[in-house]
Specification:
Number of domains: 1
Oligomer: single chain
Largest sheet: 8 strands, antiparallel, barrel
Structural class: mainly beta
Strand content: over 45%
Strand order of the largest sheet: 1-3-4-5-6-7-8-9
CATH class: Mainly Beta
Shape: elongated
Number of strands: 9
Helix content: 10-25%
Number of helices: 2
CATH topology: Porin
Length: 209
């Protein structure tokens, strides 16, 4: 697991810093909350689970109205469902316990950013593929099920955001994000993750000048 994480960190660093003087010119970080769910044939009584997200990113120079953005996130996904005990004769519900299941991912989105600049504000739209690696999970009861979760998942991200200029080289960021799985995160019950995120952060421009 540690070897895989090191490879992902190396891949992101190579993507950002190889020829970085010519391509990636702005850097920053984001953090916030995640509301996630798992679409699955296994879970019936379920609701979204809250988690955390922390990420760093690099943005390319601008090509007309678009940029390329590479990001590296730690993100908590999962679900809350109920374990129900029935009376075997009457099928009356005798007890119901809330169960929490958390999946920890390293996530690498590579996004296209479309933006339009105003005086102090820059609204933008981002979308593109996302590559997730599952490096840890916690489940109150279904340990065997989560042992079968796929380590690598391909997904997509859609982002609505705005940048607010704080100074010449620093901008504040506010984002609403939706991400989803394209490939299955678990094969037996056709499981896929989806998540909504609210993130804030800071972007630093022209640091080498």
């Amino acid at each position: 697991m540690k070897k895989t994480i090191c490879i992902l960190v190396f891949f992101f660093a190579a993507l950002v810093f190889v020829n970085g003087d010519a391509f990636f010119i702005e850097y920053g970080f984001k953090t916030g909350v995640v509301s996630s769910n798992i679409k699955s044939d296994f879970f019936f009584t379920k609701r979204s689970k809250l988690g955390l997200d922390f990420g760093v990113f690099a943005e390319s120079k601008k090509f007309k109205n678009f940029q390329i953005v590479a990001e590296f996130h730690y993100i908590q996904k999962g679900i809350i469902d109920a374990y129900i005990i029935f009376d075997p004769v009457t099928y009356e519900i005798l007890d119901m316990t809330e169960l929490k299941h958390r999946l920890d991912y390293i996530s690498i989105p590579v996004l296209l950013k479309l933006s339009k600049e105003y005086d102090m504000v820059l609204p933008y739209l981002m979308f593109g593929p996302r590559f997730d690696y599952l490096f840890s999970y916690r489940s109150d009861i279904y340990g065997v099920l989560f042992d079968e979760v796929n380590n690598f998942v391909l997904g997509g991200d859609f982002v609505l955001g705005t940048e607010m200029k704080i100074s010449e080289k620093i901008s504040g960021i506010f984002e609403l994000r939706y991400n989803f799985d394209i490939t299955l995160s678990e094969n037996i019950f056709n499981s896929k993750n989806e998540a909504f995120q609210v993130l804030i952060g800071f972007k630093f421009s022209d640091l080498k000048k």
